[in-house]
Write a structure and sequence with these properties.
This protein is mainly α. It has a single domain, classed as Arc Repressor Mutant, subunit A, CATH 1.10.10.10. The chain has 7 helices and 3 strands. It has a 3-stranded antiparallel β-sheet with strand order 1-3-2. Helix 4 crosses helix 5. The longest helix is centred in the last third of the chain and has 22 residues. The protein is elongated, with a radius of gyration of 20 Å.
């Protein structure tokens, strides 16, 4: 299939820079046209960015993870990750347990409440994107879907467990 521009004239493949600029512009337009921002939804949780990032790291883990691995995944010092974990545990979003083999190692995992909070954030995020996309004509939205789905196959999966 030959590419055609918006007026039907055969077009050449866009450069990587042109594609990156186009995708960034599209994302900016979606962000600016949304009625409720994902940032507002996250801000309502009253969690810090580091605490939220820890929760997302834990959501990608197959099971309870040592605090030091979570700290590495978030880019925090062990002490800062420990303080963030303390707050998440106090809020009932994260569970902290001693490792069965080494009691010095503390393992973190999301609680059901933590999973529920992330599930709600994903729901808000999807709704956030859905609104502006509803304004796009169906034929264009179908082509966008197909292009994004095809491109996603070349990117690493997020591996976030969505309850």
């Amino acid at each position: 299939m030959r590419l055609r521009n918006h007026i039907g004239v055969p077009a050449t493949s866009p450069t990587l820079d042109a594609t990156a600029t186009c995708v960034a512009d599209f994302i900016d337009r979606v962000l600016s046209s949304a009625k409720v921002t994902a940032v507002d939804s996250i801000a309502a949780t009253e969690l810090t960015v580091s605490q939220l990032r820890m929760m997302f790291v834990l959501a990608r883990c197959a099971g309870p993870s040592p605090v030091n691995e979570v700290a590495d995944g978030v880019g925090l010092s062990l002490a800062a990750a420990g303080r963030a974990a303390d707050r998440l545990v106090a809020l009932g979003l994260v569970d902290r347990r001693e490792d069965d083999r080494d009691r010095r190692v503390k393992r973190l995992s999301l609680t059901d409440t933590g999973h529920d909070l992330l599930a709600e954030q994903f729901r808000v995020h999807a709704e956030f994107v859905r609104g502006p996309l509803a304004e796009v004509p169906t034929d264009v939205r179908t082509r966008l879907h197909d292009a994004v789905a095809a491109a996603a196959q070349y990117l690493p999966a997020a591996h976030i467990c969505r309850p």
